[in-house]
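User: Last request for today: this protein with zinc ion, please.
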Amino acid sequence: MNGTAHMAIGATVGFLTANTLQTDPTTTLFLVGMGGVSGLMPDMDIDGKLSNRITFSHKFIRTLAQTIGILLIIYSVLEGFEKEKWIGVGAGIGLIIISSFITQRHMLTLTGLGVLGVGISLQENWLWLLGIYIILASFTPHRSYTHSIAGIAFFGIIAFQIQASLEIEGIFTTCLLGYISHLIADMKFLPFNKRGVKLFLPFFSKEF
Ligand SMILES: [Zn+2]
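Assistant: Here's the final one, the structure of the complex with zinc ion:
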């Protein structure tokens, strides 16, 4: 299943969560966005070694890295104090510049390192955990650990920390269900999936 479909499903999950919780319009919009991002998250591993032949992914990763760079700058300006602010802005600018010419293979790893560094300097648990998630995803083959129960658990911890930090209800549920929706949409019982997902890595490598 392609990225657009995964994002649409995740966004729908966010919308349904918002509806269930009867959130205000701003929160609803935010949850729809968070759902969309979470629905794409497991495919952070498309930069993995097996997928270097996929031609569109280079552009996708570059756009993703540049978007993260822009978000880092905005977030650092809004949330950081003097020194941290400039570290965040610098990391964001660096990410945008580096991602415009570096090879696909190392881009995600660098993105993850940048997010990790900013997360540590801002002391935001979810941000440095997300950095570690991205670094790990950049080293694992496509449809492996990010597409497993271990991946759900890791992202669930990140989602929990985002909710704790932003104090907006529904984030944890949206992110977790958005992520799970991706794995379900990648499963073998759906006729358009030739490969399934190895849910029980690292214990069993059976595909579901
Ligand atoms: Zn996937």
